[in-house]
Amino acid sequence: MEERRMKLRYGLTLATALTLSLGACASGGGGGSSAPQTGSSMSGANVLAQGESPRDDDFTEAAEDALNDIGPDMSDADALPLYQAAAAAAQQAIDADPTNPKAYLLAAQASLGLDDYETAARMLDEAERLRPIYELETERIRETAWIEKYQEAAPLVNAGEYEESIAVFEQANAIYKERPEVMLTLGQVYSQTGQYDEAVENYQSAQAIINSERTELMDSATAASWREQGADLPVLIAQTLVQAEQYDEAATALGDLLAEDPENVAYLRTLGSTLVAMDQPDSAQVVFNRILEIDGLPSSDYYQVGIGLYQAEDYVQAADAFQQAATASVNDRDALEMWSRSLIAAYPTGEDAPEPPAGTLEEVVEATDRWMELDPNNRNAFLIKAQTANRMGDGATASELVGQIEGFQVSMDNLQLQRSSQGGGLVVGALTNVSATEGSTATIEVTFYDAAGGVIGVEEVMVQIPAAETQAQFRVDLETDAYVGGFSYEIRL
C-alpha cells in the first residue's frame, strides 16, 4: 500500500523534516537583525503598552545575582543550585509583589535553566500581561528556547524514540506557539504512536498559523517552506480524523475540500475510506467509482481504491480496480495478489455459491500466473491457482501445483511494496522456513520495475534461515527518484 505522505519517508523523514525546519528557523529567528521580523508582536512593537514598571527589591536582586553567576562554561551540575536559588528568590519576589513583571521574567529565566518549560511559559505569559512591552524581549527568549528544544528532539526522532521526543516537543510548544514546525512534527510523531486526537490537534494548530498573516511576516524561504507543508495538511488532517475515528468531522472536511477540487484523487480516496468506516458502503462505492472513471492514474491510486472496495466487501468492483492497477503497472505484485483474492472472494466455492460468470475462472488463472511469475515462493498463489484449476476440471494441473507447494524449502509471506510519492520504495515481507537448514543463509534479490516493466534497480538482503515453520522478517530499500511500479524477487539458498 502507498505510504501516507506528510514528508514521511520510510520512518526517516521525521528527522529530515527536523533538519529542514531548523534551517528555516535559524534563518528567521536566529541572531542578527532578522530576529525582530519573526514575530507578529515585533511588527506592532510601536503600539505595545508599557504596563507595570519593573521594580527591584532584595528578592529580584538575589535572583539576578544567581543568574549572573552562571557562566557559559559552567557545568550543569554547578549551574543547577544557582538556577534553583534564582527560582526560589524570584518566587519570593512574586509573593511579595504579584504585580511586579520583573519577578515573573526572572522566574521564567530560572525555570528555563531548570528545564521546566511549562512553568517558564506561564511566567512569561504573566510578565507580558503585566508589561506588554516586554514582548520585545520575551519573543527572543521564547524562540531561542524553542529552537534549543527542537534540536534536542532531533536525535530522539532519529533513534525512533518517539515517546521521548514527544515530551521534548511539548516543551517547545509550551514556550512558543508562533511557528508551525514543532506542531507539524508532533502531529507526525503522535500519528506514529497511534495518538491520533493529539495529532489532529497539532496539525490544525499548524494550519492556523500557516493560513494566518504571520506567514507574510517571515523571510521568503521560511514562508515558502510553510506554504509547501501547509498544502498537504487538509488531506492529512482528514486522514488523521479517520484514524481518530472522528468520521463525521473527516467527511465534512473532505466534502469542503472536494467542493473546491472535485477531481482530487487523494480527497476522493480518503472520503471513500471514511464512508466505509462509517458503514456506508453504497456511498463509498459511488466515490470509488468516480476515481475508476479517471484515466491515466498511477497504479497506487487504483490499488488504494481496490482496498477500499474490498473493505466494503464489494469484491467484484475491487477486482476491477486491482486489474486496472495491474494494467497501469504491469509488475505490480500487490495488485495481482489482490486481484486474485478479490475474484475468489466474489465467487467462493460451495453448494449455495453462485456460478461465476463466463471467463471469471480464466481471469483468476491469468492473475495468478502473473502473480506467481513475480512471487515464485508464495504458497497462497499456487494454492489459489490449484483450487481454480480443480474448479475448471483440470485435476492434473491442480495436483502438479500442490506438488510444487510441497517442494518448497522456504516460502514467502506478507509481502508488500511501500512506495514514496517522491520516488523509491521498499519491500517488506517474511521468509518462512519449510524444510531448509536452520541457521543457513538465504539471499533475497529484489528487482524493482517502473510502470512499463523496465528495471530501475536491483537490491539484495541476506536472511538467516529461522527454525522450521517460523518466520524471519526482512526489508529491501531502493533509493531513487523514479516511481516504483512493482517488484519481483529470487531466493538463493
Quick synopsis:
The protein has 493 residues and is mainly alpha-helical.
Counted beta strands? 6
Q: Order of strands side by side in the largest beta sheet? A: 1-2-5
Helix proportion range: 55-70%
Could you tell me the mean pLDDT? Answer: 87
Estimated structural class = mainly alpha
How many helices?
A: 21
Report how far apart the termini are: 29 Å
Q: Give the amount of beta strand, in percent.
A: 5-15%
Overall form: elongated
Main sheet specs: 3 strands, antiparallel
Detailed description of the structure:
With about 500 residues, this protein is mostly helical. Among the domains are: about 15-235, no CATH class; about 410-490, Immunoglobulin-like, CATH 2.60.40.3230. The chain is built from 21 helices and six strands. The protein has helices at about 15-30, 40-45, 60-70, 75-95, 100-115, 115-130, 135-160, 160-175, 180-190, 195-210, 215, 220-245, 245-260, 265-275, 280-290, 300-310, 315-330, 335-345, 360-375, 380-390, 395-405; strands spanning about 410-420, 425-435, 440-450, 455-465, 470-480, 485-490. A three-stranded antiparallel β-sheet has the order 1-2-5, with no helix packed on it. The protein has a three-stranded antiparallel β-sheet with strand order 4-3-6, with no helix packed on it. A hairpin with a 5-residue loop joins strand 1 and strand 2 (about 425-435). The chain is elongated and about 100 Å long.
